[in-house]
């Protein structure tokens, strides 16, 4: 039963109910959640210092255009 | 540090639509880095990312008075952004009614719905030093639509309704693209990690 719960990504109502009560499947779900957190951390991209400066320059140009068009 | 406004407040929306310069400035300061980051995540060069961000803002200023406030301003802004990305690539992100990954996944199941082989513990490989590199490579192998759906759903953790609005796809298509993106990632990772199933 633990295997069945591990398999089906898409789930059925019965499978989801099973996962809620089966301790092995609960453990699997916990591992999947941990994995998702790790993936999210790796894929969440931070801007480098160089990129931050580029963005800051871009913001200043855009804001200057806003001010010019409101004058 | 710039002020972060409540973008859902009626007063703020009214100011945006009337192109109040202070409100627009606050919006630019808050979301430019997000736009730039999203463009770099889509593998545009530094210059292309700057250009796309710039044209996104210009278009936004042209059309902001049409914003009705039914969605978050971020959704409206990113809808414009993704259209700019598609224009840049001169391609539409078409939803395909079938994908080869569907057959690959089907072939891994018996007729009674059980897996043919024992699935592997997903956490066992996550500590493999190559795992992160492989995962990024597999993400880059996805087409633009699949990659952005996965990123917006799993990394940015946006609600499905917001993703549908931003990418202009139906909820049904979103679910199918998302499941295909996961299946392709799984298949790709299995190959790179040498997992046989």
Number of helices in the DSSP assignment of chain A: 4
Number of strands of chain A: 0
Name of the level-1 CATH class of the largest domain in chain B: Mainly Alpha
The most extensive contact between chains is: A-B, 34 and 39 residues
Number of domains of chain A: 1
* Overall 3D shape of chain A: elongated
Please state the second-level CATH architecture of the largest domain in chain B: Orthogonal Bundle
End-to-end separation of chain B? 52 Å
- How far the N terminus sits from the C terminus of chain A, by CA atoms, comes to 70 Å
Can you count the beta strands of chain B?
0
- The CATH topology of the largest domain in chain B, please? Arc Repressor Mutant, subunit A
Q: What oligomeric arrangement do these chains adopt?
A: heterodimer
In the residues of chain B, how many domains can be counted?
2
> What's the SSE pattern of chain B?
HHHHHHHHH
Look at the helices and sheets of chain B and give the structural class. mainly alpha
* Strand content range of chain A: under 5%
The largest β sheet of chain A comes out as: none
Give a verbal description of the structure.
The complex is a heterodimer of chains A (71) and B (197). The mean pLDDT of chain A is 75. In chain A, helix 2 (13-21) crosses helix 3. Chain A is built from 4 helices and no strands. Chain A has one domain (2-70). Chain A is mainly alpha-helical. Chain B is an all-alpha fold. Chain B has 2 domains: 10-89, Orthogonal Bundle (Rna Polymerase Sigma Factor, Chain: A); 100-193, Orthogonal Bundle (Arc Repressor Mutant, subunit A), CATH 1.10.10.10. Chain B is built from 9 helices and no strands. In chain B, helix 3 (46-63) crosses helix 4 and helix 6 (131-141) crosses helix 9 (171-193). Chain B is elongated. Chains A and B meet through helix 1, helix 3 and helix 4 of A and helix 2, helix 3, helix 6, helix 7 and helix 9 of B.
């Amino acid at each position: 039963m633990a295997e069945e719960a591990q398999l089906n990504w898409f789930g059925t109502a019965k499978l989801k109910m099973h996962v809620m009560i089966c301790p092995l499947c609960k453990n699997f779900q916990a591992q999947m959640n941990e994995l998702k957190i790790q993936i999210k951390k790796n894929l969440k991209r931070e801007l480098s210092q160089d990129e931050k400066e580029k963005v800051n320059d871009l913001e200043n140009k855009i804001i200057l255009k806003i001010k010019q068009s409101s004058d | 540090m710039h002020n972060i406004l409540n973008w859902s407040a009626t007063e703020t929306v009214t100011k945006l639509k009337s192109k109040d310069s202070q409100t627009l400035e606050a919006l630019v300061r808050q979301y430019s880095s997000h736009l730039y980051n999203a463009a770099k995540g889509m593998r545009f060069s530094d210059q292309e990312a700057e250009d796309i961000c710039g044209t996104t803002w210009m278009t936004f200023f042209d059309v902001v008075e049409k914003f009705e406030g039914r969605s978050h301003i971020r959704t409206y802004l990113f809808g414009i952004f993704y259209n700019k990305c598609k224009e840049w690539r001169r391609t539409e992100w078409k939803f395909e009614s079938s994908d080869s990954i569907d057959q690959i996944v089907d072939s891994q199941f018996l007729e009674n719905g059980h897996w043919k082989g024992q699935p592997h513990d997903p956490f066992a490989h996550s500590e493999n030093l190559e795992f992160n590199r492989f995962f990024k490579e597999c993400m880059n192998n996805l087409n633009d639509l699949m990659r952005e759906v996965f990123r917006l759903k799993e990394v940015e953790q946006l609600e499905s309704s917001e993703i549908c609005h931003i990418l202009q796809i139906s909820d049904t298509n979103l679910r199918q693209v998302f499941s295909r993106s996961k299946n392709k990632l799984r298949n790709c990772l299995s190959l790179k990690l040498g997992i046989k199933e």
